[in-house]
Write a structure and sequence with these properties.
single chain; about 325 residues; alpha/beta; Rossmann fold; Methionyl-tRNA Fmet Formyltransferase, Chain A, domain 2; six-stranded antiparallel beta sheet; 17 strands
Length: about 325
């Protein structure tokens, strides 16, 4: 049996799953995604990645602002779908919606639940120094990522992984996993989550992306990786934000925030414990660039300090 699938999602992470479901030959009578949003310099309305993918496949798309209305729920009922797949959708599914499909609603979540329930599981896993993360296919309930687990798929976080690279890896892992589970939907067994080891991945803020140079180098490098590409770890230089996109731990020490070595090949900054060697950097109003390119046109001299004074978000 190939179940008919209502799909709900918004960004690239979800679009990859939708593409995989369609490629596997499942019927998708309806796709739900967030309303078009203004974006770019001209603030023109932009469709979500899922909407673009759905239209490419000739699928029916709706963009409700809520699923709590009788009208929205009636549309879902009319599809007579076997299951609803949800991935980074962005709207709350009320209990009435969860009960509409024959096999309920399956969520593709980018963590090894119950660790990192919530909005930013990829970034929080890297920031915390987790050695592995992954994807769970979950039977949705009314709680926040509290549903029973259908399948778990692990990914080892590499020393150079950023939120961007882990996102892409889990995006493809999730797409493969949901297709495999849909193919055996009549035989799936959901195992309740453990209440031990629950953590919450709070939404990222620009303020917390500011580097505290008094922290150990290990924590600072994890933050840089976790906040790449959004919102970008930053500090203050010449009273303006300076973003750091890539850095490694190095065997130096000095007063926290002090430039220890600065030449055309390296830029080493002391941390609370240890130091970091910056590879990619971006000053305000410029593009990201290598340290060599940055050093050819700017002066960040040895002995100077990077300021941690706050700027407006």
């Amino acid at each position: 049996m190939k179940p008919s699938v209502i799909f709900a999602g918004t960004p690239d992470f979800a679009a990859a799953a939708l593409n995989a479901i369609v490629a596997a030959g499942f019927e998708v009578p309806l796709v739900l995604t967030q309303p078009d949003r203004p974006s770019g310099r001209g603030l023109k309305l932009q469709s979500s990645a899922v909407k673009k993918a759905a239209l490419t496949h000739g699928l029916n798309v709706i963009q409700p602002t809520t699923l709590k209305t009788a009208e929205a729920q009636a549309i879902l009922q009319e599809q007579n779908a076997d299951v609803m797949v949800v991935a980074a959708y962005g709207l709350i599914l009320p209990q009435a919606v969860l009960e509409i499909p024959k096999y309920g609603c399956l969520n593709i979540h980018a963590s090894l639940l119950p660790r990192w329930r919530g909005a930013a599981p990829i970034q929080r896993a890297i920031e915390a120094g987790d050695k592995e993360t992954g994807v769970c296919i979950m039977q949705m309930d009314a709680g926040l990522d509290t549903g029973a687990i259908i399948s778990r798929h692990t990914y080892t976080i590499g020393a150079d992984d950023t939120a961007a690279t882990v996102h892409d890896a889990l995006m493809h892992l999730g797409a493969t996993a949901i297709v495999a589970d849909l193919r055996q939907i009549e035989r799936l067994q959901a195992i309740p989550q453990s209440e031990t080891g629950v953590t919450y991945a709070q939404k990222l803020t620009k303020a917390e992306a500011q580097i505290d140079w008094c922290q150990p180098a290990t924590e600072i490098v994890r933050k840089i990786r976790a906040f790449n590409p959004v919102p970008g770890a930053w500090t203050i230089w010449q009273d303006k934000p300076l973003k750091i996109w890539q850095a490694n731990i190095t065997a130096h020490s000095g007063a926290a925030g002090t430039v220890l070595h600065s030449n055309e090949h390296e830029l080493i900054i002391a941390c609370g414990t240890g130091a970091i060697s910056i590879q990619e950097i971006q000053k305000a109003g410029s593009k990201a660039m290598s340290v060599a390119s940055f050093q050819s046109g700017h002066t960040l001299s040895e002995g100077s300090r990077l300021d941690s004074a706050e700027i407006s978000a």
